[in-house]
């Protein structure tokens, strides 16, 4: 009996025993169903909570909404968890840590972006230290919008994640569609931030002018603050090496 | 001693020993940077200001007169405000500021207050003002390979921050 590799939820040692034994491969479908049922109903959560969404996550884990009753138990270590719930703003300094924790989680694993900061950066998007959405460096399965989302909204997001896992079992999603390969380097955000060649220049200009109007009066030289706008260039392909940061004299300590 | 009396004593100290003539309303008195360390030492040893409360650096870009052919009103400079608090009643906060040009540095208060170490590192990291003779003036908040100092006025808005923009 030919086994369709792409329709499997995940690899499990059980499969090898089943395939080796004659006749038992008929049971493969049932075992796959069993494993899918188990993984969808025991989504242990690694709470990557960095700010106020983490408080809502605690409320969701507490008695009123009670994620435990659907098998979603928050654990303190990535090595036992299936779902990483990124709840809060991720900064440039935090992002490598989040990526490292994500890579420590065993397969199969899923990611939920909780709140608008994790989804897109929200109003911190253009700040120098904030990542414009965690999907620029880890694959996200479910987005839960809100600022912060209700505990019920997070519950709904996890229920949708269970749906997604079951759809995979039914072959409606292949593994590649469910969780694309994480890029070796970073993706560009879907909407350009400041200084991005694909950003609307009018937006940048309005933002510059409104920020420059804060307390400088007539004495402000706008040419000092406005930088020359970069020319539009093709987006680098995923997998291309990022540009190495140039050394400057200012950052070296005396 | 009430807090007002402590403030009067602080102002008298500034005027008599450190040559401060003007005490501005609603702002900290401006002290010559040459007196910065001596003032802190006098406050700590003679008046009991033992808590290093804060240090805040600000970056001021050059002010140009747009109506007068961009004549320079004020050059680009830093202002560093420091606050010391005395223990016990009246818990007065003695605070002053010094002005330094871009190429100048502020003498560190680390020999007087060990708590100045990280606070001055933070100000160096975010604003770029240098503290002379600081033992370990490295970045504190930003990643080690970060370019520039993000709280400078000319850094904001349209500075490219790799790798995401």
Structural commentary:
The complex is a heterodimer of chains A (254) and B (165). By secondary structure, chain A is of the alpha/beta class. Among the domains of chain A are: 5-39, no CATH class; 44-161, Rossmann fold (3-Layer(aba) Sandwich). Chain A is built from nine helices and four strands, in the order H-H-E-H-E-H-E-H-E-H-H-H-H. Chain A has helices at 13-20, 28-40, 52-61, 95-104, 116-120, 151-169, 175-178, 201-212, 222-225, and strands spanning 45-49, 83-87, 110-114, 142-144. Chain A starts with 12 loop residues before the first helix and ends in a 29-residue tail after the last helix. Chain B starts with a helix and ends in a 33-residue tail after the last strand. Chain B is α/β, with parallel strands linked by helices and 165 residues long. Chain B has one domain: Beta Polymerase, domain 2 (2-Layer Sandwich), CATH 3.30.460.80. Chain B has three helices and eight strands. The A-B interface holds A 92-93, 128-129, 131-132, 136, 185-186, 188-189, 192-196, 204, 207-208, 211-212, 218-221, 224-227, 230, 242-243, 245-246, 248, 250-251, 253-254 and B 61-67, 70, 73, 124, 128, 130, 136-139, 142-143, 145-150, 153-165.
Tell me what portion of residues of chain A adopts beta-strand conformation: 5-15%
What's the overall average pLDDT of chain B, rounded?
86
The end-to-end distance of chain B, rounded to whole angstroms, is 56 Å
Could you give the order of strands across the largest sheet of chain B?
A: 1-6-5-2
CATH topology of the domain at 44-161 in chain A: Rossmann fold
Main sheet record of chain A: 4 strands, parallel
SS content category of chain A: alpha/beta
- Counted by DSSP, the helix tally of chain A is 9
Helix content of chain A: 25-40%
* Strand arrangement across the biggest beta sheet of chain A: 1-2-3-4
């Amino acid at each position: 009996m030919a086994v369709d590799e792409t329709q499997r939820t995940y690899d499990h040692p059980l499969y090898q025993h089943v395939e080796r034994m004659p006749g038992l491969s008929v049971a493969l479908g049932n075992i796959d169903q069993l494993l899918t049922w188990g993984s969808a109903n025991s989504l242990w959560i690694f709470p990557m909570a960095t700010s106020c969404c983490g408080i809502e996550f605690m409320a969701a884990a507490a008695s009123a909404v009670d994620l435990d009753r659907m098998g979603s138990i928050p654990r303190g270590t990535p090595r036992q968890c299936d779902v990483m719930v990124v709840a809060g703003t991720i900064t440039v300094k935090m992002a490598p840590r989040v990526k490292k924790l994500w890579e420590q989680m065993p397969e199969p694993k899923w990611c939920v972006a909780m709140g608008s900061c994790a989804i897109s950066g929200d109003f911190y998007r253009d700040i120098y230290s904030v990542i414009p959405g965690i999907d620029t460096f880890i694959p996200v399965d479910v987005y839960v919008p809100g600022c912060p989302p209700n505990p019920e909204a997070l519950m709904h997001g996890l229920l949708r994640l269970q749906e997604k896992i079951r759809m995979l079992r039914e072959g409606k999603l292949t593994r590649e569609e469910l969780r694309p390969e994480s890029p070796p380097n970073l993706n560009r955000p879907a909407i350009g931030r400041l200084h991005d060649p694909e950003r609307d220049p009018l937006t940048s200009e309005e933002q510059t002018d409104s920020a420059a109007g804060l307390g400088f009066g007539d004495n402000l030289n706008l040419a000092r603050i406005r930088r020359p706008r970069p020319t539009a260039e093709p987006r680098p392909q995923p997998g291309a090496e990022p540009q190495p940061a140039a050394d400057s004299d200012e950052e070296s300590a005396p | 001693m009430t807090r007002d009396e402590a403030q009067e004593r602080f102002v008298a100290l500034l005027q008599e020993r450190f040559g401060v003539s003007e005490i501005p309303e609603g702002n900290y008195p401006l002290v010559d940077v040459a007196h910065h360390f001596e003032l802190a030492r006098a406050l700590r040893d003679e008046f009991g200001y033992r808590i290093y409360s804060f240090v805040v650096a600000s970056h001021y870009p050059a002010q140009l007169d747009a109506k007068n052919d961009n004549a320079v009103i004020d050059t680009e400079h830093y202002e560093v405000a420091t606050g010391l608090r005395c223990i016990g009643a009246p818990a007065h906060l003695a605070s002053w500021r010094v002005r330094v040009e871009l190429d100048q540095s502020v003498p560190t208060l680390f020999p007087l207050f060990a708590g100045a170490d990280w606070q001055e590192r933070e100000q160096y990291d975010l604003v770029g003002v240098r503290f002379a003779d600081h033992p370990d003036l490295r970045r504190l908040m930003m990643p080690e390979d970060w370019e520039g100092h993000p709280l400078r006025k000319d850094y904001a808005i349209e500075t490219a921050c790799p790798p995401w923009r």
